[in-house]
Specification:
Layout lengths: L19 H11 L10 H19 L6 E2 L10 E2 L1 E3 L2 E3 L6 H16 L13 E6 L2 E6 L10 H7 L18
Antiparallel strand pairs: 1-2, 3-4, 5-6
Length: 172
């Protein structure tokens, strides 16, 4: 099945922000060797689909602006986005987004499902003594990865300098 790439019109069936050719060009530019071992175009397409899903799920709520159409499948294109004091057209897919996608897809290509691991139930620990209860998730490979290059590439497209990994604590 051919990869359906978002072209800026808000396709209802888009699967990726970048094509296989764009992925290969990016990989070559930054020195990622997708030919050893030889990854097929089908494997690259699958990695692009998984990486697009991950970016939209992880960063979708943080992106500036709003959907350009009500029928689009992916988080982009968007209207009302400003990058470095310049508006991004509502039919544009930013190169920074494509670069971030290629970085995420590279990780998915060499280690499928590495961006979205399942957390094992036995990693959740709960301890209760009287009225006091403590719950935590043990650190493991089941936690969500932080891919700093992806985060940094997308930071100019998110609201303010929002971070998916840092929050503010408020004392009640």
């Amino acid at each position: 099945m051919a990869l359906i790439v978002e072209d800026g019109t808000g396709l209802a069936n888009a699967e990726s922000y970048a094509s296989v050719a764009e992925f290969k060009a990016y990989a070559g530019k930054v020195g990622y060797d997708y030919t050893t071992p030889a990854y097929s175009d089908t494997q690259v397409e699958q990695a692009l689909r998984r990486a697009t899903t991950w970016i939209d799920a992880r960063y979708g709520p943080l992106f500036q602006g709003r959907w350009a159409t009500t029928t689009q499948r992916l988080e982009w294109p968007r209207s009302g986005v400003v990058y470095r004091c310049n508006g991004i057209a509502s039919d544009e897919i930013p190169e920074k987004l494509k670069d971030a996608l290629c970085e995420a897809a590279w990780r998915e290509l060499i280690d499928p499902s590495s961006l979205s691991p399942d957390a094992a139930v036995d990693q959740i620990k709960r301890d209760k003594v009287g009225d006091a209860e403590t719950e935590f998730r043990a650190s493991s490979s089941g936690s969500h990865p932080v891919v700093f290059i992806v985060h940094d590439l997308l930071s100019g497209l998110t609201k303010g300098r929002a971070s998916a990994y840092v929050g503010r604590a408020v004392r009640a």
